[in-house]
Amino acid sequence: MSADVINIIDADPELGDLLAPDERERARRETLTRLRRVSPGAWDVRTSVEPEAHHRGFLIVDGLISREVEVLGRSCVELLGPGDVIRPWSWDETGSHVKAEVGWVVLEPSRMAVLDHRLILRINPWPQLGLELFSRGTRRAHALAVALAIAHHQRVDDRLRLTLWHLAERWGRVLPEGVAVPLPLSHQRLADLVGAHRPAVTSAMGQLVRAGDLSRRSDRTWVLHGAPPEELRHHPLAAVLS
Fold first, then answer.
1. Does residue 9 sit in the same domain as residue 115?
2. What is the DSSP letter of 72?
């Protein structure tokens, strides 16, 4: 893991959009922080622990990381990317009677801005920045709640279709033929995301392809066709596709 420097305004343009133009340049100078890089593969998060007692975590600048939680041999996966705030070494087992194993995998080369105590002090003149960083955790919790609700659908093909549209809400790219989900989603990774066995996912994906709901490009990107399912009628892509 190598270190560099970046300001969080350049790292995350949505943060810059919260500031008035005359404040943005000053904020760029005051929000410098260290940049961490992680390479694809299993990530031993113990190497990311900082000596700073008030280290808040990281803001993912770019790349893709998965968090895998396993309980009694069954696992679930959360995909994390640009804009997400993480504290990967933190797992509070207080009061929990469930033994959970947590693993992290870097799926694409990733850069992360360090959210340390010094940075938090320097952004005090712009409380909207701190509030937005805090709100990122709330958004993650909402996304996980949606994923949990999707996992309760009985049919694997329904879970897959809903999960892909849920991922498209954040990462989707509108193309003439549909909405591309440019993520490395193998059948096994999809199985982990929807809580199913890989053979069942392979069969269900075949059904979705034959029904015209889904296709795969030569670059292995999945493309969704038609409008988002009725269960996701408030999906932001619905207006674009209508």
1. yes
2. T
- Condensed to tens digits (0 to 9), the pLDDT of residues 150-198 reads 989 999 999 999 999 999 999 999 999 999 999 999 999 999 999 899 9
Q: Is residue 214 part of a domain?
A: yes
Token pair recorded at residue 211? 């029904």
Q: What is the pTM of this model?
A: 0.85
CA distance 210 to 233: 23
Phi, psi of 64 (to 5 degrees): -150, 130
**CATH number of the CATH domain containing 220:** 1.10.10.10
Range of the domain at 179: 153-241
Give CA–CA dist 30/121, Å, rounded. 10
Return the structure tokens found at 68.
Answer: 């895998």
Q: Could you tell me if 104 and 14 lie in one domain? A: yes
Structure tokens at 121: 């002090």
Tokens of 50: 């900082």
- The CA distances from residue 168 to 113, 222, 237, in Å, are 25, 10, 8
Distances (CA, A) of 43 to 48, 76, 93, 94: 9, 17, 21, 24
